[in-house]
Design a protein that fits this description.
Pathway: Lipid metabolism; sphingolipid metabolism; Sphingolipid metabolism. The protein is α/β, with parallel strands linked by helices and about 400 residues long. It is built from 14 helices and 13 strands. It has 2 domains: about 150 residues, no CATH class; about 180 residues, Spore Coat Polysaccharide Biosynthesis Protein SpsA, Chain A, CATH 3.90.550.
Length: about 400
């Protein structure tokens, strides 16, 4: 009987410690967001000229927002930069958009188009960017996904964070304002759960690098083997940061978040992304499968409510309800901080989006565990433990 009692109390103590730690992360992330995000960018002339930046823009297909997103890169408030568009196939509609809608409209901006790519591994994004990377002429490389929309001062903000000992400056993922439930769900996720763990990890010095908008010092990347060294990983951003940090360089989060502005938002599309990211995390860090549920409001709250009853005689249901209420209010505060003001929807819409996001989170993780195959664009991959990827032939894939 005694071993069973010790086991029950052991689990209860574990859940209570996890609960306390997550609330410390809540406090840490919110406080850090108020200090870190949306600082005023210093526009005064620098003592030394800012280094040039080569912007790599990998493109695949077009959507209704692509043209306006790309145009924001032609009006950056930065003295010296080039834009290198990368398209894998000649017949991709993005080729015509760049050739006929962008390059003629902005003849005074240094911009080029690279078509074809070079296969250096299984990662299609790296294969697509590699010719442009080899042709880049500046010491700083900005890798920016097609769906990113830039403020005029975003690049200047990133470069100002690039100190002598820093090799990577990345923007925290967020989203532009948009209408519809999918947009609410997207903003709630990136402004609460994603922001909390991203800011907490950065504050604690944990590798949280997401490469959708990432400024890299080229010499540091070359020390790690160059862009091609990470072509066998789908999570090239994580492993790039890992190798660069291992060589003594530092990494910083910029003040301004990365503004994703997809032209085709849907609940299904966002959940497909979340499943893909969960599969990547599980392959890279297998303990994710055990620890990630404890970062979610509902599983953690249920475990902590049971633990409080075992350890302190507390009523589990009131404990759980108070936990959910305070978590909800905490998420509202951090969303306002990341948004730098009120979000573009009502508190009722936030409640619905938040409840949907929290209820779906355990099922997204379960789906990622049950099917380890990763669907990306028109390709499908399977990951080894450690993150190395293998592309699957069409006959070996199945619908996710």
């Amino acid at each position: 009987m005694m071993p069973m009692v010790y086991t029950v109390y052991g689990f209860a103590i574990f859940f209570m410690i996890a609960w306390v730690c997550l609330w410390l992360i809540h406090i840490m992330a919110f406080s850090y967001s108020k200090w870190k995000l949306h600082r005023t960018v210093d526009r005064s002339p620098p003592e030394q000229a800012y280094p040039g930046v080569s912007i790599l823009k990998p493109l695949t297909g077009v959507d209704p927002n692509l043209l306006s997103n790309l145009e924001t890169f032609f009006s950056l408030d930065y003295p010296t930069y080039e834009i290198l568009f990368c398209v894998e196939h000649e017949k991709d509609p993005a080729v015509m958009l760049v050739k006929h809608s962008l390059l003629p409209k902005y003849p005074n901006v240094d911009a080029r188009l690279f078509i074809g790519g070079i296969r250096v591994g299984v990662n299609p994004k790296i294969n697509n960017m590699h010719p442009a990377y080899m042709a880049a002429k500046y010491p700083l490389i900005l890798v920016s996904d097609a769906g990113i929309r830039m403020r005029e001062d975003s690049l200047l903000d990133m470069v100002q964070h690039m100190r002598e000992d820093v090799a990577i400056v990345h923007q925290m993922p967020f989203v532009c304002d948009a209408e519809g439930f999918a947009a609410v769900y997207e903003k709630v996720y990136f402004g609460t759960a994603q922001a909390r763990m991203y800011l907490g990890a950065d504050f604690l010095g944990i590798n949280c690098h997401v490469g959708m908008s990432s400024l890299v010092r080229r010499c540091a990347l070359e020390e790690a083997g160059g862009l091609a060294a990470f072509a066998d990983y789908l999570a090239e951003d994580f492993f790039m940061a890992k190798e660069v940090l291992a060589r003594g360089w530092k990494m910083r989060v910029a003040s301004l978040p990365a503004l994703q502005n997809s032209g085709s938002r849907s609940v299904g599309a966002l959940q497909a992304r979340l499943k893909r990211w969960a599969r990547l995390r599980i392959a890279m860090v297998p303990t994710t499968a055990l620890l990630e549920p404890l970062s979610e409001c509902l599983p953690l709250g249920a475990g902590a409510a049971w633990a409080a009853g075992q350890l302190f005689g507390a009523e589990p249901l009131p404990f759980f309800l108070v936990h959910v209420l305070v978590w909800f209010l905490s998420d509202w505060l951090i969303l306002r901080s990341v948004q730098n003001g009120s979000p573009p929807f009502t508190k009722v819409q936030f409640l619905v989006g938040w409840a949907w996001s929290e209820c779906c989170a355990p099922f997204v993780l379960a789906a990622a565990l049950l099917n380890p195959e990763i669907s990306w664009r028109t390709r499908c991959y399977r990951l080894d433990w450690g993150g190395r990827a293998h592309e699957l032939k069409p006959s070996h894939t199945r619908k996710l």
